[in-house]
Write a structure and sequence with these properties.
The protein is α+β, with helices and mostly antiparallel strands and 370 residues long. It has helices at residues 3-10, 59-75, 124-140, 159-172, 182-191, 197-203, 243-254, 272-286, 292-319, 331-348, 350-367; strands at 19-24, 32-38, 46-50, 98-99, 105-110, 210-212, 221-223, 229-232, 239-241. Adenosine-5'-triphosphate binds next to loops.
Length: 370
């Protein structure tokens, strides 16, 4: 980035002290993220982000969501877990973002010092802390009316929508890839009804619509130097949703001993220890708000989220790889196969997963933890 351009953007924001030393930062895949260091050591450092405008076309609605959630969390005071809340830096015009001369949109956060995000979980303590952080986050938002939040990416976790997209790609088959995909398509079809369980519970009014994070990867929680959860970040996909989505998506990456796109399916195994630690932290912080149907939905979600991701990868493969960046010609198929293998493994352990969740939830119910 050209320094003059950056200085012009920074000049729009209410920055304290004097910042310099712009560096790209973190391992995010969506926005361009930079860190700005302060020359005055008693003043904050900052995170500057160029918002990905092709994914988030309505920046005003996006920033409305983030502001609403941050205001709510800050009004409540720091949560019981003594976590921080992300803080937006306002522009001099009092807004939460600015558009530059090229038409790009920028926003700024206070940099959270002494924190670290992990792409891969290393131990049970981190898993439990991650669970606590996301659990506390949802609990803190449980009294914010979901109608105040825009559905910024409509139908994001709607299984019916994802299956419809797959059917549509199958009907078009633009790359003539279908001929080799019978096993994968059979896999999807055989499970389609079961995977609608959470949607049906929701449609029947059994699962309350909450404000959920919707991108609960482990690196969207920052931990402090003692590996304690410090702050939930990356609030772009905050939307009305079911709590199961956040639980299942986190478990999808935490329980898998292999990468999301592992080619060697033998390497895809379940780490039940990390799963238990995450579930324990998550349920500890949400037990008092969860109803019994929601507790049931948590185990279903462990199957649903990898299934949805597999369906999305398969759809993109059939479609000709337009959505996900690929690093080899059949990358999306490899990703889909890895997710379906994970579903298979999870099905094999489903009773165990269900009993673990039940047991943890009874434990926290009995102790009245919140
Ligand atoms: P993703 O691929 O997870 O969607 P993203 O492109 O949306 O990522 P963020 O998660 O918002 O970007 O930020 C990218 C990285 O920058 C984070 O993983 C984290 O390491 C770091 N980061 C973001 N905000 C802060 C902050 N306020 N303080 C310190 N580090 C931060
Ligand atoms: Mg992120
Ligand atoms: Mg993100």
């Amino acid at each position: 980035m050209d320094n003059n351009k950056i200085n012009a953007i920074v000049a729009h924001f209410e920055v304290k002290g004097e910042v310099s030393d712009l560096q790209t930062y973190g391992s995010g895949h969506i926005h361009e993220t930079y860190r700005l260091k302060n020359k005055q050591t008693d003043q904050p450092d900052y995170i500057l982000q160029k918002i990905n405008h092709s994914i988030f076309t309505n920046v005003d609605a996006l920033m409305h969501n983030i502001e609403t959630v941050i205001d709510h969390l800050q009004l409540k005071g720091k949560s019981a877990a003594s976590q921080d809340t992300l803080s937006l830096v306002r522009t001099k015009a009092g807004k939460s973002y600015v558009q530059d001369a090229d038409g790009s949109y920028w926003r700024m956060y206070l940099f959270l010092k002494g924190t670290k995000g992990y792409d891969l979980i290393e131990n049970d303590k981190q898993a439990r802390e991650g669970g606590r952080a996301y659990g506390q986050f949802i609990a803190d938002l449980s009294d914010l009316n979901p109608s105040k939040i825009h559905e910024i990416l409509p139908d994001f976790h709607n299984i019916q929508h994802r299956l419809n997209q797959l059917d549509d790609a199958i009907a078009r088959d633009p790359e003539q890839r279908l001929k080799d995909l019978n096993p994968e398509i059979d896999f999807v079809k055989a499970r389609a009804e079961r995977m609608k369980t959470i949607k049906q519970m929701g449609d029947a009014g059994k699962l309350p619509l909450r404000i959920t994070h919707n991108d609960t990867k482990f690196n969207n929680v920052l931990l402090n130097e003692k590996d304690e959860a410090q702050c939930v970040i990356d609030l772009d996909t905050i939307m009305p949703g079911y709590i199961a989505f956040d639980f299942g998506d986190a478990v999808r990456t935490i329980i898998n001993t292999a990468e999301e796109d592992e080619k060697d399916l033998e390497k895809i195994q379940l780490n039940m220890g990390l799963f238990k630690a995450f579930a324990d932290g998550f349920i500890e912080k949400t037990r008092t708000i969860l109803n019994e149907d929601e507790v049931d939905s948590l185990s279903q979600s462990c199957l649903l989220l990898p299934y949805i991701m597999g369906v999305r990868f398969l759809t993109d493969y059939i479609d000709g790889d337009h959505y996900y960046k690929i690093h080899s010609p059949h990358h999306n198929l490899q990703r889909a196969r890895a997710q379906f293998e994970l579903v298979r493994k999870l099905e094999g352990k489903f009773d165990d997963i269900q009993q673990t969740i039940q047991h943890i939830s009874e434990k926290h119910h009995a102790t009245g933890n919140s």
